[in-house]
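Hi team,

Filling in the usual template for the complex we talked about on Friday. All components are listed, including any nucleic acid strands or ligand strings, so the model treats them as one assembly.

SUBMITTER: L.P.
PURPOSE: interface mapping
COMPONENTS: two
RESIDUES: 708
SEQUENCES:
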Amino acid sequence: MMDSGSNLNSYIELVVPLIEEEMRHIVNNLHDDLAQSGFDVGQPDIFVTMLRYHLGFANADGTPVQVYSGKRLRPVLVLLCCEACGGTAGNALPAAAAIELMHNFSLIHDDIEDRDELRRGRATLWKLWGDAQAINSGDAMFTLAHLAMQAALSRGARAAHVLQALKVFDEAAMALTIGQHLDLSFEKRSDVSATEYMAMIKGKTGALTQAACAIGAILAGAPAARISALAGFGAWLGIAFQLQDDILGIWGDPAVTGKQDSDLSHHKKTLPVLYAAERNQQLRELYFRRTIPGADDLSLLRQLIEENEGREYTESAAHEAYVKSLQALGAAGIEGPAADVLYALAESLLGRSA
Amino acid sequence: MMDSGSNLNSYIELVVPLIEEEMRHIVNNLHDDLAQSGFDVGQPDIFVTMLRYHLGFANADGTPVQVYSGKRLRPVLVLLCCEACGGTAGNALPAAAAIELMHNFSLIHDDIEDRDELRRGRATLWKLWGDAQAINSGDAMFTLAHLAMQAALSRGARAAHVLQALKVFDEAAMALTIGQHLDLSFEKRSDVSATEYMAMIKGKTGALTQAACAIGAILAGAPAARISALAGFGAWLGIAFQLQDDILGIWGDPAVTGKQDSDLSHHKKTLPVLYAAERNQQLRELYFRRTIPGADDLSLLRQLIEENEGREYTESAAHEAYVKSLQALGAAGIEGPAADVLYALAESLLGRSA
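RESULT (copied from the run log):
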């Protein structure tokens, strides 16, 4: 028997291409599907190219390409939770694609809202096509996510389960927008507390991993208590993941994380800084002014954050979230190969360096 | 027996407050509903105020108010089509609210994309809270629309019907974003044809009235042919409505339409101008340059449009769309009081002056 770490890798290698194929299928069939349903409004080339470009399926001129576009963690969680609850991963593929499309919708709009010019080394949609078209493209991606989820019906899922999944899906979207609302409001403030930060990432990161796990279980026809336990697992896993990201954003190796700049260069308000800033006035003054810090400033900032326990506190909060996610996973009472891979996945996320 | 026109007015006076109450209910219960579903991410005051402000339920400081917020034509169509197919309007109220929320989502994003500072005499969301928060608020409104539609399940609609309604709902949203994509792309071009314009409004205006009628029929459990006929009625009615709007935007009485500026002041590319500009070079040169026209220019523009049959052509296209909508309504083979009100509604829209 292989160890669970290599099982995890084989699983990911197996399902990620299937998830991407599902996503590609729904984007490419957009026009035909609409026309068949009596909404024949044509299909402007650039409209579809923008969606395919953002997903890493096309260059800006529409030529096909395959660009690495993230870990696809969320859709993998859908499939694993479905299988761990006795369902068939194949039937949950539309839902997995839907969760990843929803995540990508939020990235398109976040990039506009945060004025980010690059995403995974490529120009963002608004940078290439302007704000107006990019906002509209994000709306199309959000809509596509819903259509993808509804397609679960044609793969043998029961109508009641698909409706239940859609409800969780939109509740997560609402929590996501509340999280994003908080995040945007934080940018204008210099008094954000660690507690407020935790509420924000609960919405902005936890809600979607929570929905991913719950939806996998729902489509497998799992009982309510198991759905709820897996939802808790996903929520805490997402939070642990985000706090790890916060740590890597300051102390990670750029060669490994792929991030050119430290989060500190952009005055990002992440937990290590916010916690330490509550305890140190010099850090508050340095961090909340709007000048771009030089290399010397960056190492001073890092030092002040560490001296004021920002790193320690965040590591311990990440660990606590991780423990809670494992407890919830335990409470789900699932066993078998898919459950083993879920445990391995949780483990790999906490130890990650990228 | 009253004539159908006064039946229409009584019907509207009866149902619009119910639709608004349904909308108010779903916005106000947002936080509790989310918390109950395990997405307890708090409810920032401004987040909800922005939604309530846009819908005309609150001032910018959150104090309650009741502002006139449009004809609510689309949700009225949902209820009428449901009743005309033998369904109960009360059961379709969540769907009616959903259609109106979707319409309002598109208004929030359109206002950002078009840089419109006013909507029905009040400052737009982006003008008050900035682009980033307004984009996010539009996303929340879109999500709320989906949650509203799903709530039809708790009012006795069958799961299969709600799923079918949701599919039409998102197909309409996709057609809407395709229409908006075209509209935005037209702004940068000086060679938009009348044919291209018709494709654009099919998506931007026709899709949502199409969905409104189809969804009403679906929730009543109507047979496929009747759903399809009512969808056609809604699509052509929406197109007729838009073409009427184009005419009123140039030749309407500002005291009646409530629009301060003529569409011509903003170089809006509507059918009367596009049709005439295809036939007249002076009009093309005057209209597609970027200077703001004075009063003399405006009357010259109006004259050139009329001389080149832009008004005549648009009036005839509006009439044709109207006839097609009535033919489709006839093909639906519905009878009774709700059907009578539907006919009266169609009639009132073509003859309108505001």
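MY TAKE: Chain A has 15 helices and two strands. The mean pLDDT of chain A is 92.

Thanks, L.
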